[in-house]
Design a protein that fits this description.
Elements: H1 3-16, H2 24-62, H3 69-76, H4 80-86, H5 90-114, H6 119-137, H7 139-148, H8 153-162, H9 165-178, H10 188-203, H11 211-227
Helix pairs in contact: 2-3, 2-5, 3-4, 5-6, 5-7, 5-9, 6-7, 6-9, 6-11, 9-10, 10-11
């Protein structure tokens, strides 16, 4: 029996019996819709990534400030409006490009906590990692920091949702509280938000200070967070 004969017999079985589908009249139409929807979603995801790749290349070669939405559209070979269909403004591309680095740091923090590292040490290490990532990114990190501090609440919220620094610090502080190394009388959400603000302020100066100055500023900020500014008493 060749393959064609076998295929015809299988088709005949499906038409005579209902174990393939009891309601054949609407089955194909429904599946076509699902398949078509999935295809459109995949095409949108591919285009979304294409825009990110084009933006990353332009940001690296020209800088964020000297790159326009028109440049990104031309590099991706799409219409200008297509870019806006995926990203409401140019800086939103920068946020997504920076998100991968933050995600990696969050995973590294998780690994350290799982291994039993003291939570407050992990907190400082995460901040150092984020600073080193920002130093590598240069202008991109400054743009991202400004978005996180943007006066427009909607833009700031979008930035904080894309780069959930406060949530990362909050999770670490929850572990510190379990270890009895973080005060229980302070709301963790507020503490995490303030630490995030300190870090963002440092990141916003990545292109203004040299690497050693940035590392020292971060270290001083955390010394203030942990020890205050009053003279230590013996």
């Amino acid at each position: 029996m060749d393959e064609r004969t076998n295929a015809r017999q299988v088709a005949a079985l499906c038409s005579d019996w209902y174990w393939c589908t009891e309601y054949t009249a609407g089955y194909n139409t429904g599946m076509d819709h699902v398949i078509d929807l999935d295809r459109r979603q995949r095409k949108r995801q591919v285009l979304h990534q294409q825009l990110l790749d084009s933006a990353q290349q332009l940001f690296s070669s020209r800088g964020v400030g000297k790159t326009t939405v028109e440049d990104i559209a031309e590099a991706a070979d799409v219409a200008r409006q297509t870019v806006f269909n995926h990203f409401p403004y140019k800086e939103a591309l920068a946020l997504e490009l920076a998100a991968d680095g933050v995600q990696r740091v969050a995973y590294q923090a998780h690994v350290l906590l799982e291994a039993g590292s003291p939570a407050l040490e992990v907190l400082e290490q995460v901040s150092r990692w984020l600073l080193e990532t920002a130093i590598e990114q240069g202008e991109l990190a400054v743009v991202v920091a400004r978005e996180l501090m943007h006066p427009d609440q909607d833009r700031a919220l979008r930035a904080r949702e894309t780069l959930p620094l406060t949530q990362i610090f909050e999770a670490i502080l929850m572990q510190a509280r379990e270890e009895h190394t973080a005060r229980r009388d302070l709301p963790i959400s507020i503490v995490a938000d303030r630490i995030s603000g300190v870090l963002i302020a440092v990141l916003s100066r990545v292109t203004s200070l040299n690497e050693d100055e940035l590392r020292r500023e971060l270290a001083v900020c955390f010394d203030i967070v942990f020890n205050g500014i009053t003279e230590r008493r013996i």
